[in-house]
Design brief:
The protein has about 450 residues and is α+β, with helices and mostly antiparallel strands. Helix content is about 15%, strand content about 30%.
């Protein structure tokens, strides 16, 4: 006699899908292994087992059988034992068993942070839910910019803290990874499964991390910061911050009067100013020989690279003041007060008030008035006559001082003093109340004003 053992897979019970063997789904329907076959949808066993049985009348015999199922075949099964050659099925029953191993949890993930600049440290966290009380580990993989299918190199494959991270309370977190390039990174978290649960992985693209270029700063040092016409000037730039910036720096130089750096770049066609390579974060320009008086302005532009944004210094961050050389030339008050020479005035105007340039006291210690001097125009001061009082001495000084200022400010007159030196000396003398100090300075300036006028 042979017995036929069928292992029929229960796919639905009372209308509920029970194919993966989730616990509690056949809720109260199976008692002590028994169930109602009429309430079940089954897949019949395609490979039943046959066992030979030899037993006498009214005898009892225990039959053992084994069955190997392919990997992944788990869930609820009905075990049927059918007779061949027996007149009675007494002692032969059908019953239900549950084979574990097909729990399928869900995995949700959270990348932290989801964006940042190059160099930011990123990590990932996975949370398991559902399944058959999942235990075990999670392995994290990270794929770099351009790998939109997560089929390329796993950037963290050889690093500690990313593979087989134990679940704790249903979650696991990776170690941190310092980013080294800009672009979109993608995390993939894989739950490795356990005896009762299938492995499951998050999808590529569901945990994108956007890494933007870093923004370095650029600081500059002009050399020298001041000089006289003909001095050779240059610029140096230092790029800091960002992520190990590489690339080049281009230097532009704008001439006197171009306060917005919108005019011609004086070094645009010269060698040693464009695309100067960074070395240790620094770059220096070639030298430029100045040709005129005034304020020059450097602008340094860092090119940026794959991981760093470009950076530019401000227009007025690097001013270089160029003055004319001092010399022994000078034009007299009579030259400067002539209306036909008003066009040669530089930095001052004929109608500008004395008080706008010099600090004249309202009154002098001898009681003479100073207000009338302060309210005079510069052109008027060139016609002062002088006198015996402190007011008169101050007239003599101011006449010589205005001519001295016009000589010092004109780029074509090599005067022996600067405008700053003149204003400082004159203010000190006017406020000293000492006639001798006032007239001595007037004599010094008058001698300089008669040094020989190069203008006509």
């Amino acid at each position: 006699m042979n017995l036929q053992v069928n292992l029929d897979h229960i796919t639905f019970y009372q209308g509920q899908n029970v194919s993966d063997g989730q616990p509690g789904v056949i809720n109260g329907a199976v008692v002590d292994g028994q169930f109602s076959e009429q309430l079940a949808t089954e897949i019949q066993d395609p490979n039943p087992t046959f066992s030979a049985l030899s037993i006498g009348p009214n005898a009892t015999q225990t039959l053992h059988f084994s069955r190997s199922l392919p990997a992944g075949q788990c869930g609820y099964y009905q075990v049927d034992v059918a007779k061949q050659g027996l007149t009675s099925q007494k002692g032969l029953v059908g019953f239900e068993i549950r084979i574990l191993g097909c729990g399928t949890p869900s995995i949700s993930t959270t990348a932290s942070p989801t964006s940042g600049t190059v160099g930011v440290v990123i990590s990932d966290t996975a949370v398991l839910s559902g399944g058959l009380s999942p235990t075990g580990t999670v392995t994290f993989a990270l794929f770099g910019p351009g790998d939109t299918t997560c089929a390329g190199t796993n950037l963290v494959a050889g690093l500690s803290g990313f593979a087989n991270v134990p679940l704790s309370g249903g979650s696991a977190s990776s170690a941190g990874y310092p980013t080294t390039q800009m672009g979109t990174f993608n995390w993939v978290a894989t739950y490795n499964g356990d005896a009762n649960n299938n492995a499951v992985a998050s999808a590529c693209g569901t945990e994108a991390v956007t890494v933007l270029p870093a923004s370095p700063a650029i600081s500059t040092i002009p050399s020298p910061a001041a000089g006289t016409v003909g001095v050779v000037i240059s610029d140096s730039a230092h790029v800091t911050g960002g992520l190990s910036p590489t690339g080049t720096v281009s230097f532009a130089l704008y001439g006197p009067g171009d306060t917005t750096c919108a005019g011609p770049n004086l070094v645009a066609a010269l060698s040693g100013f464009a695309n100067v390579p960074l070395s240790g974060g620094n770059a220096s320009s070639a030298g430029y020989t100045t040709t005129q008086v005034g304020i020059y302005r450097w602008v340094a532009s860092y090119s940026g690279d794959a991981n760093n944004n470009a950076a530019v210094s401000g227009c007025n961050a690097e001013q270089v003041t160029i003055t004319k050389p001092l010399g022994g030339q000078g034009c007299t008050p009579g030259f400067w007060k002539n209306p036909k020479h008003f066009a040669l005035w530089v930095g001052y105007t004929p109608n500008e008030l004395v008080s706008a340039v010099f600090n004249v006291p309202a009154s002098f210690p001898d009681g003479s008035d100073g207000t009338s001097l302060a309210s005079s125009s510069l052109a008027g001061a060139l016609a002062f006559q002088g006198g015996s009082t402190l007011n008169g001495a101050s007239q003599i000084l101011l006449r010589a001082a205005v001519a001295a200022l016009l000589n010092a400010s004109n780029p074509n007159v090599a005067y022996p003093m600067t405008t700053g030196q003149i204003v400082t000396a004159v203010n000190a003398a006017l406020n000293s109340g000492d006639r001798t100090q006032i007239t001595n300075l007037a004599t010094k300036l008058d001698n300089a004003n008669n040094g020989g006028c190069p203008l006509s």
